[in-house]
Amino acid sequence: MTVAAHTAPSARNFAGLSTTMLALGLVAVGFGVADVAMVSPAGVGAVAAVGLGDTVVVAVSAFFFGLIDTFSARLAAAEGAGSTATRLPELAGAFLLGTIPLVAIGVGCAIAAGPFLGLIGQPEEIVPGASGYIATRMLGVLPTLLYLGGMETLKVCGLRSSAIVLLVVGLVLNVGGNALFLWSPASALFAGPEVAVATATVLAQSVMFVVAVVLLLRGFRGQRFRAPSARAVFGETADVCRVGAGVGIRQVNDYAASTVPFLFLGHLGVGVVAAAAVAAKIWTLYCRVPQACFGGAFVLYGYASGRSRSDSRTVLRRVTAYSAVPVLVATIAVPLLAPWLVRLIGGDAIDAGMTTLFVLAYMITALPYFFEKLAGELLTVERAGVVLSVASSVVTYGLTIPLAALAVYVIGSPFLAIASAAIASAVLAVVFWRRLLRAVRTPEQQDTGRSGAGPGAPADAPAGTGAEGAHLAGS
């Protein structure tokens, strides 16, 4: 495995990483689609229960992904610096210890699932199935985290094709497990079809972790790793959990900022909700492009952060330019294709004009979305957990949700409820970019009060020396 080749900030590497991210995202969607499609013969109640359960699981998992992203960012820095042999054992140990509180949260969610669904007024007939689905998935948090950690390691360490193979294998296992547990005598082992498909997912993810380990052993064949000290692992664990919590809170806020305003639209009638749902699907498809680009930027910037601060500045400019081109193409294409996409996804039952208008309302957010999400990804590398969590919390609950409520309940405009997200996104874009640009300055340009990066520190000191404080500032 050639370290220098896959960590270079080239257009080719960016394209390869972004394409991999796009493929991983599309394949990952297949897990949820397979569960819903294969449980549908059991009736609309089972479909509703799985859909509701998956929504809750995704919301909780958004916090868990903070640990995944933080681990991935630090591994990328080690790979860029050529210190993976030293850092991977430390990071792997910290990652494993970091899963302990998350598993505890998962167990708590499993216990509280039924009462919670009843408390928020969900239909009584789907609560048992939905709570069973949630409990099974939450009790399987550990294999989920382990396979995701393995996949991130494959991706960051230049084994991108192996990461795609891993996810495809998992999807096949999930579909096969669904079929076995739903349509064979084994179905009698489960309380309902919802628990059956959830169990198939957890088992598939467990096998995926084993496959990831095998692929990593093959990829690292001949590589000699240095055993970490317990002190180094525990120190890394504390820092990973601290930053990961901040990143996780930001991701939960992102989820809340998109789902809560959508729930408000129910006040305006079924037709509005149906049109908004189709428009949201189109917006989600569009977002796959910038998300893939930001994923590629995240890894390349992580590599650079492990080498030097000047590399980080250079790569920041490059990945911004690299990301802008495909995102611009998608931003132009979606409004042009909107009438066709509306008919394709929504059929003849919805108001095509209203739905197209809602698509345009979503697209108003495209420009601030680009800068907000790109900077947010790169600030994860900079360990700016506090900035990410505090800023996103204040804006989400102080601006995004109130503006949507004002648009729906006072003005009565679903268009403004959707488009108002651009205001909040623009505010976060400014906050995040100010913090990011400060992070990539040389120590001489920064305030003398910044931790570990005083005026005497070398401008291009590698991560782990005096420049490490630059990565920690603001966290």
Describe this structure in words.
The protein has helices at 3-7, 11-39, 44-81, 84-119, 127-139, 141-156, 160-183, 193-219, 230-264, 270-305, 309-346, 352-363, 366-381, 385-411, 414-419, 421-439, 468-472. The protein is globular, with a radius of gyration of 23 Å. Residues 446-475 have low confidence and may be disordered. The longest helix is centred in the first third of the chain and has 38 residues, at 44-81. The chain contains 17 helices and no strands. Helices cover 80% and strands 0% of the residues. It is mainly alpha-helical and 475 residues long. The chain has two domains: 1-228, no CATH class; 246-475, no CATH class. Helix 2 runs antiparallel to helix 8 (193-219) and helix 6 (141-156) packs parallel to helix 8.
Key structural traits:
475 residues, mainly alpha, 2 domains, 17 helices, 0% strand, disordered C terminus
Write the layout of secondary structure elements.
Elements: H1 3-7, H2 11-39, H3 44-81, H4 84-119, H5 127-139, H6 141-156, H7 160-183, H8 193-219, H9 230-264, H10 270-305, H11 309-346, H12 352-363, H13 366-381, H14 385-411, H15 414-419, H16 421-439, H17 468-472
Helix pairs in contact: 2-3, 2-7, 2-8, 2-10, 3-4, 3-5, 3-6, 3-9, 3-10, 4-5, 4-6, 4-9, 5-8, 6-7, 6-8, 7-8, 9-14, 10-11, 10-12, 10-13, 11-12, 13-16, 14-16
In summary, what is this structure?
The protein is mostly helical and 475 residues long. The protein has helices spanning 3-7, 11-39, 44-81, 84-119, 127-139, 141-156, 160-183, 193-219, 230-264, 270-305, 309-346, 352-363, 366-381, 385-411, 414-419, 421-439, 468-472.
